[in-house]
């Protein structure tokens, strides 16, 4: 019985969510007196099936309520696109080594709010001429308004092509509701991104990009076993 309980606790330990918090600087946006455009931080975590992104902004997203909040992702498996995104905003993501944005999460908070997943597919000829397909539904979307508001987007790992021990690149953006509005703030850039709404912006190794690593469950399990061996748990169990 002890062994069964022990194995059960190991499985539980392996399925515990990992998470990171990426912090941004404050008040580095060109739009004055509008905290909803000022990104504070984003927490990224995962479960066996999902990735969860919780963006915090420095204002009440319901007043004014025209804020749009987006996430660009390079899954580093597919080439993606180094120009453009699922909403055709002037926002790009260049992860280097020929990798660009493969997925785009776009959300809004007005009229009850909503969110979309768009996926980039390279054209039949490969390399260039691909297109964005969507919109697809997210696994979950919600926002909580307050002096600091949070916007949470949950997507399945399979929808992003991230089912193993993957490392992906990403950035998050605040913007207005206009079709040509760019990245008023970027999570991964501590400096001002643009000086006017339609200015193009590119997330890159130069301006700033964030990464998240999902360990393979078997790897996490082995690491957990290794840690327990290090703590002498196995010895204590054998003697019990
Ligand atoms: Ca900021
Ligand atoms: Ca920033």
Write up what this structure looks like.
The chain is mainly beta and 240 residues long. The protein has one domain (19-214): Immunoglobulin-like. It has three helices and 15 strands. Strands 4, 7, 8, 9, 12, 13 and 15 form a seven-stranded antiparallel sheet that branches. Strand 10 and strand 11 (149-156) form a beta hairpin. Helix 1 packs across helix 2. The model is unreliable at 6-16 and 229-237 (pLDDT under 50). The structure holds calcium ion (2 copies).
Q: What oligomeric state is this?
A: single chain
Globular, elongated, flat, extended or rod-shaped: what is the shape?
globular
CATH architecture name: Sandwich
Q: Identify the bound ligands.
A: calcium ion
Largest beta-sheet characterization? 7 strands, antiparallel
DSSP helical segment count? 3
At the fold tier of CATH, the topology name is: Immunoglobulin-like
N-C termini distance: 12 Å
Task: Briefly note the structural class of the backbone.
Answer: mainly beta
CATH class: Mainly Beta
Beta-strand share of residues = 35-45%
Into how many domains do the coordinates divide? Answer: 1
- Count of individual beta strands: 15
Order of helices and strands: HEEEEEEEEEEEEEEEHH
| Helical content (DSSP H or I, runs of 4+) | 10-25%
Q: Mean pLDDT score, rounded?
A: 87
Low-confidence stretches: 6-16, 229-237
Estimated radius of gyration:
20 Å
């Amino acid at each position: 019985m002890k062994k069964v309980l022990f194995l059960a606790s190991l499985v539980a330990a392996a399925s515990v969510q990992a998470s990171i918090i990426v912090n941004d600087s404050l008040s580095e946006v060109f739009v004055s007196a509008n905290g909803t455009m000022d990104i504070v931080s984003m927490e990224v975590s995962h479960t066996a099936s999902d990735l969860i992104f919780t963006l915090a902004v420095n204002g009440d997203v319901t007043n004014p309520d025209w804020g749009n909040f987006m996430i660009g992702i390079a899954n580093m498996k597919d080439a993606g696109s180094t120009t453009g995104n699922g909403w055709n905003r002037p926002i790009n993501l260049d992860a280097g080594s020929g990798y660009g944005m493969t997925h785009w999460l776009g959300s809004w908070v007005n009229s009850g709010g909503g969110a979309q997943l768009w996926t980039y597919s390279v054209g039949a000829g490969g390399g260039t001429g691909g297109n964005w397909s969507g919109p697809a539904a997210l696994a979950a979307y919600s926002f909580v308004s307050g002096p600091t508001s949070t916007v949470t987007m949950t997507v399945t790992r399979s929808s992003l092509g991230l089912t193993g021990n993957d490392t992906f690149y990403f950035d998050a953006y605040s913007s207005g509701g206009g079709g040509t509005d760019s990245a008023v703030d970027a999570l991964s850039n501590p400096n001002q991104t643009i000086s006017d709404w339609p200015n193009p912006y590119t997330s890159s190794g130069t301006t700033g990009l964030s990464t998240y690593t999902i360990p393979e469950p078997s790897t996490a399990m082995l690491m957990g076993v290794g840690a327990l061996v290090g703590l002498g748990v196995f010895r204590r169990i054998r003697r019990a």
